[in-house]
Design goal:
By secondary structure, the protein is α/β, with parallel strands linked by helices. It folds into 2 domains: 2-112 and 227-282, D-Maltodextrin-Binding Protein, domain 2 (3-Layer(aba) Sandwich), CATH 3.40.190; 113-224, Periplasmic binding protein-like II (D-Maltodextrin-Binding Protein, domain 2, 3-Layer(aba) Sandwich). Helices cover 45% and strands 22% of the residues. Strands 1, 2, 3, 4, 5, 6, 7, 8, 9, 10 and 11 form an 11-stranded mixed β-sheet that branches. Helix 7 links the parallel strand 6 and strand 7 (176-178). The chain is globular and about 55 Å long. The chain starts with a helix and ends in a 5-residue tail after the last helix.
Amino acid sequence: MKIRNMLGAVLVTLFVALAAHAGDGCEAVYGNGDNLFTLATGSPGELGLLKKLADEFNRANGTTMCWKKAGSGKSLKLLQEKKVDLVLVHAPAAEKKAVAEGWAIKRTLIGSNEFYIVGPKDDPAGIAGARSAADAYSRIAAHKAAFFSRGDNSGTNKKELSIWKTAGVSPAGNWYIITKDFMMATLKRANDSKGYFMTDSSTWVAGQKDTPDLKILFKGDPVLINTYHGLCQPEGATKGQPAASKFIDFIGSPEGQAIIGTYGKDLYGTSMYDDAAYAKQYVH
């Protein structure tokens, strides 16, 4: 009876702890160790890579990870406000600024994917013949073809806006549709409306079966390579900082890199991310 009561108490405690984490805005909680740390990211969590990494790390370190779902801009804001211990983001200029200002450390390259500009198969704006990503955007704007933007200050949105700037276009009007939503949801909206969208390759691999009316129309411009870095709180800034710092070491290690570089291959026949060794050539 005592053993059953003790087990019940442990389960209740665990349930209350997990509920508390969920109340803190956790999209998911991985692990059941004593040491909790909180991580913010977007697509790596949405596509399952984060869970794979977290399961391996938690098993070896007695930790629990709270994942807060946020694009790169919001993730970095959460880090600055000390609401998370760690971020995985793809916004190089903002990352460097965070380190320079002293509220983030251990900026570590962890891998990459790339952006594709996808759109309706008949390609009304003719972007398949574009010379660059900026040229593709110029053609979409000139045609006033439906273009979907996340409009959420995510790394994807930052990249999109930089391409519009290079193209000399200030996108506005009924053709420019802002979703304020995440990558997969926006990709599906573009499919439903037969519009254009810039998606990362990882989301495309996972979502193309559900977006039959879209195809890749432009890729290959070096500006579309998307590098991810991990950053964490400075030492002593948050209770979860030691575990977060250790997690960055793990994802940069041969074990973590093997997970990143092969993730998705068993499901889709191709990896969803490239490892840091490949991504390094695109870091400036």
